[in-house]
Amino acid sequence: MDNRQEARNGVVTSYKNVPTRTVSAGGVEFAYRELGPKTGVPLVLVTHLAAVLDNWDPRVVDGLATKHHVIAFDNRGVGASTGTTPKTIQAMAADALTFIHALGLTQVDLLGFSMGGMIAQVMVQSEPQLFRKLILAGTGPAGGEGIKNVTKLSHFDTVRALLTFQDPKQFLFFTRTPNGRRAGKEFLARLKERTTGRDKPITLKSYFSQLDAIHTWGLERPHDLSAIHQPVLVANGETDRMVPTPNSLDLARRLPDSDLVIYPDAGHGGIFQFHAQFVAKALDFLQR
């Protein structure tokens, strides 16, 4: 479908071409992109450490937007959004709620990936009435296994990437098997498909604030996840180094209404490596 066809139908279905908009709330100009049919319950995407709008896999976003009104956004102090990035997951969750209310939305579904999944857990516990369903990918609960090591691992793989002229995500998100290496290269190529109107990269200051927030989350006492009554789809790769896969099993076990999917020979970016299977699973889960 070309841009004219999309515009004529009034439904933008390509993340590569969707314009970036802004909305003001709580002293912040939030940058966001939305696409897909403007019917039903919107799906809000909450993103990972160091990510801006351009870090969402277009195959995942476009696939979800075939059936859903999908909204991706930069949280406070990230990318094109103004303000200062907070140093706690709880403050990031409060900002994300401010953004959702600024759009006038009264019920949404959430997809939280990695750090975004931590933020999503707090959002749902803070305002349960706002959320219908929840997808938690490549993430873990407060106090979860190995989460406090994310800073150390991120620094190590960033240095490793610099020394080998690669993107750190090749190491952080994917396995070192032939399948993992290939999937990483394909994913990184897809992130470059948007050539105009790209987002601003995250600043080092914001990145370090996010690392502080994740570290603190990893040291927190476990939350009572039995209070989350929404249906939850938990997804990950079987060998996640960033947020170790046992955290996904722990989440699925502790959430009262959960579905678990683990992708083989995949790491932290399992939902991007297996994007076709993940989109099919997510659409089925959201439409059930």
Automatic annotation (TrEMBL):
Domain AB hydrolase-1 intervals: 42-272
InterPro entries membership: AB_hydrolase, AB_hydrolase_1, AB_hydrolase_fold
Keyword entries, A-Z: Hydrolase
Organism: Paractinoplanes toevensis
Domain of life, per lineage: Bacteria
Pfam family, one: Abhydrolase_1
Coiled coil: none
Protein's UniProt keywords contain Metal-binding: no
Transmembrane segments: none
Protein name as catalogued: Alpha/beta hydrolase
Phylogenetic classification of the source organism: Bacteria, Bacillati, Actinomycetota, Actinomycetes, Micromonosporales
GO molecular function ontology, one term from the record: hydrolase activity
